[in-house]
């Protein structure tokens, strides 16, 4: 059987973006495509899109650079998938997506692609970016509400920071970290009060308030709360893994241990971590000292 132009493109390792678009079109072909891919929708694919974005962030966090091309490819495929579904529905195609982001980047960087001066601080450029975005929202008929356009699908901590940043730009913000810490103590007291004297709904609400203030504290301290929590998750995973290792050496599993034993091993893992960090810091200091 002679190969079609589509077959040749699909199997061409140098086919680039046209190859990927053709693969996606073939997967969604109602007559010859993959049954699973054909039955998907924007709603069913969206969770995979979020998952792939998180996997890109994970690779970057771990600095696993050899894995990054594959993970970026997975994320790009998500964009191609949504664009193909839109084309199938007669909404728009991939070219529209590309044109939209290219036009947006040109419009939002007049100091690069226009006549504005590049002689600006990063803070000035950020302010200009937000001003242009606000103008775009107004032009799109979305109104001038301060918090419009902060995506609902963002991780909750990230969305909290973005909402707070928007409010801060119009002056709705505490002047310093001290006021945030005071509010944090207030919210902790309210959570304790809810737990002791109120029902589950009130506890749920107060716990959310506490997390929201924690996000605000991260913002005031110029920390990324998602990154901080990912680091804490990684630390917990590493230390609990050491507990499992030491229990295994004793012929035991966590289910056959108890809290007192595991807590003691946790403290051992914590001390091991601190010693390792001190050794790394000492080595870095020694290298710096040798260079001076």
UniProtKB/TrEMBL annotation:
- Enzyme class per UniProt: hydrolase
Gene3D superfamilies, A to Z:
MazG-like (1.10.287.1080)
**What chemistry does it catalyse, as a reaction equation?**
ATP + H2O = AMP + diphosphate + H(+)
Q: Is this entry keyworded Transmembrane helix? A: no
Which residues are in the NTP pyrophosphohydrolase MazG-like domain? 40-113, 179-239
Q: Which family does it belong to?
A: Belongs to the nucleoside triphosphate pyrophosphohydrolase family.
The cross-references to PANTHER family, in alphabetical order and at most eight, read:
NUCLEOSIDE TRIPHOSPHATE PYROPHOSPHOHYDROLASE
Could you tell me what this protein is called? Answer: Nucleoside triphosphate pyrophosphohydrolase
Gene name in the database record: mazG
